[in-house]
Amino acid sequence: MGRPPCCDKVGVKKGPWTPEEDIILVSYIQEHGPGNWRSVPINTGLMRCSKSCRLRWTNYLRPGIRRGNFSSHEEAIIVHLQSLLGNRWAAIASYLPQRTDNDIKNYWNTHLKKKLKKQQAMGAIFAPVPMPPTAPTFSSAAAQPEAAAYSGLLHHHQHDAIIGGASASFSSTVVDVKAAAWRNDTSYRRRSPFAEATPCGGDSSSSAASYASSMDNISRLLNGFMKSSPPPPAAAAHDVKPAIIVEEVEDPFLSFDQHFSGATDLAFAGVPPPPLPALLTGGVHASYGEETTRQQQQAPLCSIEKWLLDEAVEQVADLMDDLSDGCCSLPLLY
DNA sequence: AACAAGCGCAACCGCCTGGTT
DNA sequence: AAACCAGGCGGTTGCGCTTGT
Predict the structure, then answer these.
(1) What is the pLDDT of residue A132?
(2) Which of A24, A67, A80, A285 could covalently link to A193 via disulfide, CB atoms 3.0 to 4.6 Å apart?
(3) Does strand C come within 7 Å of the CB of A106?
(4) Nucleic acid strand C within 7 Å of A286 CB
């Protein structure tokens, strides 16, 4: 039996959202918070599919979204993460809290892919991907998730190296098997760190007040459209913000590096690692929430990820330099 | 000025997963 | 255990805008 449509197609409006619809949706979410999307069209009278409401919210109306040009640092992050994760836009987006997966996906498809292809066509000289001097071992049961994370990341790393013509010299059956398992594990979708950590991800514990207090998008919308909207609560307006705002740091790319480097090495010191690859679960991801230090917000980053990411970040930095210089030494691509 | 081609992006579609009944 | 449901994801499409001729 086929899966029924998410909503009754009859009478459902499609196409671009009007400001009126946006306001209705935003007002509703201000009051009730996101989530339970099924009830949104019912309770608001919007002639929209619940999915459409959710998408409109997450991709456009949600507070904290940054629109417009991507910085070169954001590009670098995307390129790097894409090489590691593939087209897992939601996972990639979790590292750029101000960008939506849709935005990143669009940007990749319309800009980055072409840009990289172009560079490749210009006679790219593939540089060997440096491999780690030694591969860590995973002996304890507690380290298995980390091992899996390592395997998955390693596989990408190897894959990139192979594609790039480098001679990846350390492969193993174990690594490949685990990497394959990792690639096939789509459960990360349910564990999107951003989705879980932000009010927009359906966290039912988030109060409506917290949304109202942080909706810069909403206030813009209301101010722009209605011209008579009262300002959002002053105190709250800056209380809830993405903890990491790329353009606010002196060197976003450095920040990215530090971001990944800021964790401890507890994972290899007998302390159980995060239950899932932190790269996917958001252990290294900070998002909306109360003001805390980075360390407080972040689960410890396992050593192997730190190692991989630190190294890869350097590569991507070089890559982006190359891209801007007009030469290329891409270790990956399609 | 008019038209065509290309581009960018919002939105839709179909599939998948986990939770609930 | 099976069916159903809601939410989430990636791929794709369609339309409006911009640029080139």
Answers:
(1) 37
(2) A285
(3) yes
(4) no
